[in-house]
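User: Please predict structures.

Assistant: First:
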Amino acid sequence: MYLIFLENRAKKDLKKLDRRYKIKASDFIDKLQFNPFLGEKMSGEYDGSYKIKIPPLRIIYLPDFKNKIIWIRAIGFRGNVYK
């Protein structure tokens, strides 16, 4: 089982979301504790990170497999989360 930590940006992003999107995002964050490979591996600026697509949301996270920690970097809508 992995520990989940939200970076400051992710905490702010989660607070801004509508209730229905918060529930969806929280469900997938809970699932990450048991399976850090739910998302797709990213490249470029986010090399080493993974993303989960929950239409219309994206969750960007960075797993640390050695220490069994997952850092949630950002949560948001597709158009804004990569900026």
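Second:
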Amino acid sequence: MNMIARFDQNKDGRLSKAEVPQQMAGLFDRMDQNKDGFVDQNEMRNMGSMFGGKGRPQGGVPVRPQPRTKQ
């Protein structure tokens, strides 16, 4: 489940500052790139690319590196 679907209380497809958890409120202004007071799916994708696309994939499952095997 993506973050918008998880926290979008009024189901309008975007997040307002009131809908995000308090610990994310500090990042909200950075995520709201067009400064319209909402974070939409495009802004979420752009935020992911700012971090090099690392972290959780769209499905929400953490990526765990596979153990290295000796050759």
